[in-house]
Fold:
Amino acid sequence: PFSVVGTQSENDQTGDESGKIADLNDRFRQNQSTEDDEIKGEWIMGDDITALPGPTKAAIKKKIGEHTDFLDWPLRDRGVFTHTTKGKALHVAWMIKVYDDPSLKSESQTPGDPSRSYRVMLVTLSDEEEAKS
Structure:
């Protein structure tokens, strides 16, 4: 599993570019599909998420789309939360990485330009206790 703890995204920009990146990340996270033709990308679920029952996965994806706690992440490219199902607390961590293209060989130098970038949503369970409801 990856960790969302650390410093700002490697794709961090300043000023207006930061706002463009955050808006693109929001649209990608909230649409959760290829409905938005302008933003290319895919969701990659960790094996631990893939193994969960369908309704639990759907609830987790919904929570990711509705996530609003970005105090530490102004690019709105990562988050953590706790999802409780059948009395068990699942600590979910998610992160958006932006690459040049679907080959995922190199991170994008232009994450604010959807025509020159490819977003990947990584979702996994976390052992970190910092997850929030």
In short: DSSP finds three helices and four strands in the chain.
